[in-house]
Amino acid sequence: MARSSQTEMAVLGGLSIEPMTAYALREAIRDVLGHFWSESFGQIYPTLNALEEAGHVRREGGPRARSSVYALTPSGLARLRDLLAEPVQEAQPRNGLLLRLFFGRVLGRDRCLELLRDARDRARAQLGEYEGMLAQLTATEGHTPDWPYMRLTLLAGIHQCRAGVAWADECLTTLEGDPTP
C-alpha cells in the first residue's frame, strides 16, 4: 500500500469517528494515533482536497479550509473499508540505536552502555504514559463502540515498552558483565 493510501486511511479513519476541521484532524492524529502513526499538515490538506474532489468527504462551513469542518460521506466510508481490507504493508525498519549497537566495537562499550540506559529510560517513561492513557481513556471512552479497538493499540504500546525495558536490561547485564573493552 502506497504512503498516500495510508494517509487516506488515517484521514478517513479520523473522520469516521467524528467530523472535524483539518487542524483538529491533525491534532487528533498527533495526539491519539501519534504513538504509532504520524501525518503532517503537508500530507493532510492535499489528501482532504483529493478526498473532497472524489466525493469521499464533504466540507461544511467557511470558505477557507482552516475553518471548514470535514465529514465522511457514504462513499468515504466505503473507501475506508476498502483501504482497511488491503494487506498491511510493513515499512522497512530503520533503528539508529540498533545500527550503533551493531557497530558497538567501534563505538565503544561505555557509549553503548549509555545508549542502552537512555533507551531503557525512554521505554519506561513511554510505558508510564501509555498506562496513564489506558486508565484515563478507560474512564472516558470505555463505554464507546470504538474503545475495544483503541485499547488494542494502547496495549501494543504497553507491551512494546515492557519488551524494550526487558531487552535493555538484558543488554546492559551482558555488556556490564563483559570485561572486554
Automatic annotation (TrEMBL):
Domain Transcription regulator PadR C-terminal residues, every copy: 94-176
Keywords of the record: Coiled coil
InterPro entries linked: Tscrpt_reg_PadR_C, Tscrpt_reg_PadR_N, WH-like_DNA-bd_sf, WH_DNA-bd_sf
Coiled-coil regions listed in the entry: 113-140
Pfam families from the UniProt entry: PadR, Vir_act_alpha_C
Domain Transcription regulator PadR N-terminal: 11-81
PANTHER family per the UniProt record, alphabetical: NEGATIVE TRANSCRIPTION REGULATOR PADR, TRANSCRIPTIONAL REGULATOR YQJI
Annotated protein name in UniProt: PadR family transcriptional regulator
